[in-house]
TrEMBL record:
Gene3D superfamilies associated with the record: Anti-sigma factor, zinc-finger domain (1.10.10.1320)
Region (Disordered): 116-141
Organism from which the protein derives: Enhygromyxa salina
Transmembrane segments: 79-107
Protein name as it appears in the record: Zinc-finger domain-containing protein
Record keywords: Membrane, Transmembrane, Transmembrane helix
Amino acid sequence: MAADSNAELMTAYLDDALEAGDAASFEKYLDDSPEARREVEDLQKLLSVVRELPDVEAPPDFYEKLAKKMRRRRAGPEGVSLSLISLPFQVLSILVIMVIAATFLMLEIERENAQIEKDPSAAEAKDKADRERAQARAARE
């Protein structure tokens, strides 16, 4: 059983939402897995403690304040959407990163070419390749 499906099955089992056949197969799984059995027992203890807690009512203006805060987070100052403001900055950041990466790669390529040119055997090989190309062009003409 996958971890996600185990968590879903465990939740449904604890809520008594499994059908009889699914509940029986899950109980068989619990019999085969002591670790899962301990987890279910721990969750059952936790649920019993939570059920014993007294009900607490939210303050009268709780929902109103919550809705107001959520609207404020969605919209920036004066109702302007933050996503519309932040999008150009995100695009600009990506462009800056791409320019820096391209510059770095170009400098690395130049540095590698400079190292090749400093290497005498590479310079000789390059000269030889150039001569061979020139001879091949001359032979074609």
